[in-house]
């Protein structure tokens, strides 16, 4: 029998790509989403892409009764939990909203899992839990801290899961710490989340796209005097399709071994800002004008993943390089 997998926030950017990867791997993903940051036509696009009807429940994780009804309607083998607010700057302006949604939603989800005797979960975490880490590449054993409310919500989420593991030693928990997801499915049928296109972008790739499209005059490069090969900051970018495949491998590991794990999902390579500009200009066939600006407070010279544990535990390795990441981002 095909195993059903609950995807909370499954209509969002990473959730939708993971839906496709899970369907391809033989699972039956079921979406739960309140569509606060997802397009209403995403389920239809997923059905078109997979050739199968998309099971989708319009439900908020803070609605405990609605959540129980979804669990009662399906026999889930596991949960993959994406549903969370995720903009760092927005979290600084609205910390309570992030605490209520990200932490409160996880609390309700874990309660439903307990009530319905479901003990497998893949948790969407983030490299932000490493704070300003001076250990590079960053291993999963690096010290954890939070420098903003979003990061704190992810860190506390991991701690909640740790305590659930103490109470339920038979639970199998996967914590996946993402680095910087970019790109889109090559079909062109999936989209960035609405907040990525309606709010001022915080990350490099959306700003590169704006400059290429002419909606932003030029790119500001914050600092060119770091201790890096070209003086600009290094970051680890991962294609969203590689990231989605990482979730499939994590889920398969939980089901086959019933053992918990925490792994980084990245390429293990740092790309500089100037490397990103050059690669994106080549991908879109347009010049990317930029200016050097002062360093931003809190920025670090390097931030990239040690991916050796992900390879050892999940057999995970990325398939897409920088050129494909940029090309697939521009198609968006």
Features:
UDP-galactose 4-epimerase, domain 1; Rossmann fold; seven-stranded parallel β-sheet; 2 domains; 332 residues; three-stranded mixed β-sheet; alpha/beta; 42% helix
Description:
The structure is a single chain. The protein is an alpha/beta fold and about 325 residues long. It folds into two domains: about 5-185 and about 235-265 and about 305-320, 3-Layer(aba) Sandwich (Rossmann fold), CATH 3.40.50; about 195-235 and about 270-300, Alpha-Beta Complex (UDP-galactose 4-epimerase, domain 1). About 40% of the residues lie in helices and about 20% in strands. The protein has helices at about 15-25, 40-50, 65-75, 90-95, 95-115, 150-165, 195-200, 205-215, 240-255, 275-285, 310-315, 320-330; strands at about 5-10, 30-35, 55-60, 75-80, 120-125, 170-180, 180, 220, 235, 235-240, 260-265, 270, 290-295, 300-305. The strands form four sheets. It has a seven-stranded parallel beta sheet, sandwiched between helices. The chain has a three-stranded mixed beta sheet with strand order 12-9-14. α6 (about 150-165) links the parallel β5 (about 120-125) and β6. The chain is globular, with a radius of gyration of 19 Å. The two termini are about 35 Å apart. The relative contact order is 0.14. The model has no long low-confidence stretch (mean pLDDT about 95).
């Amino acid at each position: 029998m095909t195993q059903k997998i609950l995807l909370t926030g499954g209509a969002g950017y990473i959730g939708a790509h993971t839906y496709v990867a899970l369907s391809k791997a033989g699972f039956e993903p079921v979406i739960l989403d309140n569509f606060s940051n997802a397009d209403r036509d995403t389920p239809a696009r997923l059905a078109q892409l997979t050739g199968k009807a998309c099971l989708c429940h319009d439900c908020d994780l803070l609605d405990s009764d609605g959540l129980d009804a979804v669990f009662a309607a399906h026999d889930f083998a596991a949960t993959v939990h994406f549903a969370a607010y995720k903009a760092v700057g927005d979290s600084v302006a609205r910390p309570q909203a992030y605490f209520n949604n990200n932490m409160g939603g996880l609390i309700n989800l874990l309660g439903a899992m307990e009530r319905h005797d479901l003990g497998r979960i893949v948790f969407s975490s983030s490299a932000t839990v490493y704070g300003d880490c001076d250990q590079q590449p960053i291993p999963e054993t690096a010290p954890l801290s939070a420098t903003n409310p979003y990061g704190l919500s992810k860190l506390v989420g991991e701690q909640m899961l740790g305590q659930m593991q103490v109470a339920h030693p038979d639970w199998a928990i996967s914590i996946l710490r993402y680095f910087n997801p970019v790109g889109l499915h090559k079909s062109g049928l999936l989209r960035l989340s609405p907040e990525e296109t309606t709010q001022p972008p915080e990350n490099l790739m959306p700003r590169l796209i704006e400059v290429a499209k002419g909606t932003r005059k030029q790119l500001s490069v914050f600092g060119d005097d770091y201790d890096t090969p070209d003086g600009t900051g290094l970051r680890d970018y991962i294609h969203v399709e590689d990231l989605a495949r990482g979730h499939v491998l994590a889920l398969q590991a939980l089901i086959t071994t019933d053992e918990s794990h925490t792994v980084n999902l990245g390429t293990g390579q740092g790309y500089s800002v100037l490397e990103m500009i050059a690669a994106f200009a080549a991908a879109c066939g347009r010049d990317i004008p930029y200016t050097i600006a002062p360093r931003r407070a809190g920025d670090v010279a390097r931030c990239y993943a040690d991916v050796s544990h992900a390879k050892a535990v999940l057999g995970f390795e990325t398939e897409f390089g920088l050129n494909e990441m940029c090309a697939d981002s521009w198609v968006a």
